[in-house]
């Protein structure tokens, strides 16, 4: 008989800018070696995953980490007293730091996580990437982090236009002149704060890799894909798994050198001269992870095993040419569901 | 002229490059040329086959063949 684990998952915002929660839950429901009871943790009461069938068995609203980690941990403690959570999988960049800092507290509650270390998390920040590249021998585009508008003039001779203007967590715009950099700096800093990152623009094809490191230098899973259809927010609406061995080598090399712990997504530009530049390292499972599951690597299942102290075998292969296509779908709910969640914070 | 070794062409002439994720549709002649390239058939034999089986003279075929090869090179389907 398979064991049954209670797993709490955030990121139920399956919108046109989707969080990874719903695909992670879908993967866990297909786990071969265990059954699951899923506890959905939602920040907003209209996150679609709350209302989707066969997704979360129970949903709790949680406060944003920005309101303070104590408040968030108190809420988790309450939820745990009701649900006895075995593993928690946070899926948002903006909440990871709080959960990493609270790892010990969570462990004391009996909740396991499998997250990058603070050092791993901090050193791969967009603003730190050039240093990261030097340290680990990776090709990274030149970039500078700026905190105010006057910095734009100070760094103008270090870049050739166009340049990418990026928020510390999300958003990226291509700017062709200093006026556009100013415009995008204002737009991004209002939403995500500073620093804003100015990054050299590398021409080529963007490819992505989802991977899982065991924290000892071993790669448990790795699947590369290319976005085939991109939304106006730059999100994949369709993608296909690739058989490019170089992407696998780059990922395994990075995981080995950094002893990466947990899920990750690499965003890489492959140039026409076959050079590979890492443009971002996201310290979590991406929203397109179900493609990896469909291609033969159930990365969320392996992550849960790692969190529980097991030693899952590394996946040996995946299907090349597997595709995913997202779709939108109108769920019909009832005001009573919304009412219950709004008033009690539970559904 | 050699095709990249992992290029896949289906019976219907659908070509998939697993390195780039790009896919292409080939017509009958394109499909036949890809098949010959996969078999590493020399160019003179490919030309001979087409001249024999299609209403085309050698010079016209070779012109079109070279254009087609340039397209394959541009899409990085050849080595």
Radius of gyration from the alpha-carbon trace of chain B, in angstroms? 12 Å
Query: Overall 3D geometry of chain A?
Result: globular
Give the helices and strands of chain A as they follow along the chain: EHEHEHEHHHHEHEEHEEEEHEEHHEH
Helix content of chain A: 25-40%
Quaternary structure annotation? heterodimer
Which structural class best describes the helix and strand composition of chain A? alpha+beta
Largest interface: which pair? A-B, 12 and 7 residues
Tally the beta strands of chain B. 3
Most strands sheet of chain A: 6 strands, antiparallel
Please explain how this structure is put together.
The complex is a heterodimer of chains A (about 350) and B (about 80). Chain A is of the alpha+beta class and about 350 residues long. Chain A is built from 13 helices and 14 strands. In chain A, strands 13-12-9-10-11-14 form a six-stranded antiparallel sheet. Chain A has a four-stranded parallel sheet with strand order 3-2-1-4, with helices on one face. A four-stranded antiparallel sheet of chain A has the order 5-8-6-7, covered by helices on one side. Chain A is globular, with a radius of gyration of 20 Å. Chain B is mainly alpha-helical and about 80 residues long. Chain B has three helices and three strands. Chain B has helices spanning about 30-40, 45-55, 60-75; strands at about 10, 15, 25. A three-stranded antiparallel sheet of chain B has the order 1-2-3, with helices on one face. In chain B, a hairpin with a 4-residue loop joins strand 1 and strand 2. The termini of chain B are close together. The model of chain B has no long low-confidence stretch (mean pLDDT about 95). Chains A and B meet through strand 10 of A and loops of B.
Task: Summarize the SSE layout with pairings.
The complex is a heterodimer of chains A (347) and B (79).
Chain A: E1 4-9, H1 21-29, E2 35-42, H2 48-51, E3 58-61, H3 69-83, E4 87-89, H4 93-101, H5 103-108, H6 118-123, H7 129-136, E5 143-146, H8 150-154, E6 163-166, E7 172-175, H9 178-192, E8 196-200, E9 205-214, E10 219-230, E11 236-241, H10 245-258, E12 261-270, E13 276-282, H11 289-294, H12 299-307, E14 323-325, H13 335-344
Parallel strand pairs in A: 1-2, 1-4, 2-3
Antiparallel strand pairs in A: 5-8, 6-7, 6-8, 9-10, 9-12, 10-11, 11-14, 12-13
Chain B: E1 8-9, E2 14-16, E3 23-25, H1 28-38, H2 43-53, H3 58-74
Antiparallel strand pairs in B: 1-2, 2-3
Helix pairs in contact in B: 2-3
């Amino acid at each position: 008989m398979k064991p049954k684990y209670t797993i709490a998952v955030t990121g139920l915002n399956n919108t046109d800018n989707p969080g990874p929660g719903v695909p992670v839950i879908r993967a866990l429901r297909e786990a071969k070696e265990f059954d699951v009871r899923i506890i959905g943790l939602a920040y907003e009461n209209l996150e679609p995953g709350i209302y989707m069938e066969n997704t979360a068995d129970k949903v709790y609203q949680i406060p944003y980490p920005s309101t303070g980690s104590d408040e968030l941990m108190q809420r988790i403690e309450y939820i745990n007293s009701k649900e006895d959570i075995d593993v928690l999988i946070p899926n948002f960049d903006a909440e990871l730091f709080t959960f990493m800092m609270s790892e010990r507290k969570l462990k004391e509650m009996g909740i396991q996580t499998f997250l990058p270390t603070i050092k791993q998390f901090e050193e791969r920040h967009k603003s730190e990437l050039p240093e990261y590249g030097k340290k680990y021998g990776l090709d990274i585009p030149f970039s500078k982090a700026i905190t105010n508008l006057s910095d734009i003039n100070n760094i103008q001779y270090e870049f050739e236009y166009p340049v990418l203007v990026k928020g510390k967590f999300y958003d990226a715009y291509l700017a062709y002149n200093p006026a556009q950099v100013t415009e995008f700096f204002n737009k991004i800093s209002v939403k995500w704060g500073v620093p804003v990152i100015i990054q050299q623009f590398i021409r080529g094809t963007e490819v992505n890799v989802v991977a899982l490191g065991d924290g000892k230098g071993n790669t448990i899973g790795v699947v590369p894909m290319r976005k085939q259809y991109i939304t106006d927010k730059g999100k994949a609406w369709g993608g296909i798994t690739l058989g490019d061995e170089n992407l696998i080598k780059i990922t395994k090399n990075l995981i080995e050198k950094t002893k990466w712990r947990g899920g990750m997504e690499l965003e890489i530009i492959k140039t026409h001269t076959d050079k590979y530049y890492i443009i971002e390292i996201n310290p979590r499972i991406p929203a397109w992870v179900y493609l990896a599951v469909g291609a033969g690597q159930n990365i969320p299942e392996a992550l849960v095993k790692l969190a529980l102290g097991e030693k899952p075998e590394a996946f040996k292969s995946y299907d090349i040419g597997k595709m995913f296509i997202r779709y939108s779908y109108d769920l019909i709910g009832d005001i009573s569901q919304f009412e219950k969640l709004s008033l009690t914070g539970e559904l | 002229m050699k095709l990249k070794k992992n290029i896949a062409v289906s019976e219907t002439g659908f070509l998939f490059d697993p390195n780039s994720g790009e896919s292409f549709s080939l017509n009958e002649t394109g499909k036949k040329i890809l098949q010959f390239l996969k078999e590493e058939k020399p160019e003179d034999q490919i030309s001979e086959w087409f001249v024999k089986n299609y209403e085309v003279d050698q010079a016209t075929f070779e012109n079109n063949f070279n254009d087609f090869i340039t397209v394959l090179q541009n899409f990085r389907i050849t080595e």
